[in-house]
Amino acid sequence: MIPFGMLDGAMKPTGSDVEVARALAADLGVELEFINTTGPTRIPNINTDKADVIISSLSVTEERAKVVDFTKPYSFIRTTVIAPVNDKSVKDWADLKGKSIAVVSVSANNFGGSLQGWNNANASDLMGTQLNQMVGEIEKLLAKDWKVVSAANFATKDEFQALAGERREVGLPSYDGKSMPLFSKDRKQLIKAEVDKDVAVKLAQIAGADYILIAYSEWAVATGRFVPTSKALAKNVVSVYDASGKQVFQDRSDAQGDKTLGAMGRVVVDQNSIGEWVTAYDKGIHVLYGAPRE
Fold it and tell me: What is the largest distance, in Å, between two alpha-carbon atoms of the chain?
């Protein structure tokens, strides 16, 4: 089977998508240039003029169709859920619904220290209020298919707070004066929205949930190459663990806010602009969940 896209032994692009790109360039009579990218950066590369066309295994969704134009699909990928032969708990997609889930960690970080006004916002109630809204948004989204255990039910418990990992200068939600902690042991875990297995088990037990969700959002600025206007950019990572501490899902989605906040990357995080990063976060979360925003 020919892969859609990969690097060959000489580190050159190869695969069926690569051949489609070459055929299209030949038909248009233009020079072909490949841009190194990852799954989460495909659409941002189009919207920031770093690339002209995406040719890849990219699902057509209502949310994505709001920011890019799709051609008619020329291929498809079949997705299958596989479980051990003696596991009868999941027979179809409906069996995955109705399980309980708790959002145990949501954090926002100033990517590369590039955002002006971040420190002032993070030192005030402004950041905490917005992060609480971010928790509420993801809980609302999950409630369509899951039994959500509200973070307000466990976030202030001593045993929950005691599991806190390394403290970093990130934005965190707050419940009754107590921050929802980070549970990562280092930056590597933080940016991947990961925790150790034993920590995941304890978090699920404290929350009383079948699954726990961790969300990390890295905030930056997206600036166009030709028209250098700047918008909020959120790089969102989500992980889900089951009650045994096994990571069952992890993915990333980058998204931009709706409004132009400035130019040449000169953007300030304040009460008038912070909502755009929250919007970008919400867009990314909906893409990861595969649901259109209402």
Answer: 66
Q: Which domains does the chain have, with CATH numbers?
A: 6-65 (no CATH), 93-289 (3.40.50.10610)
Structure tokens belonging to residue 40: 């989460």
The stretches of the chain forming alpha helices (DSSP H) are 16-28, 42-47, 62-65, 118-122, 125-142, 158-161, 187-191, 197-207, 274-289
213: nearest Cα among 165, 108, 142, 111: 142
Are 202 and 27 contacting, i.e. CB atoms less than 8 angstroms apart? no
pLDDT, one tens digit per residue, over 235-245 is 999 999 999 99
Contact 234, 284 (CB under 8 A): yes
The answer, as to whether pTM is greater than 0.85, is no
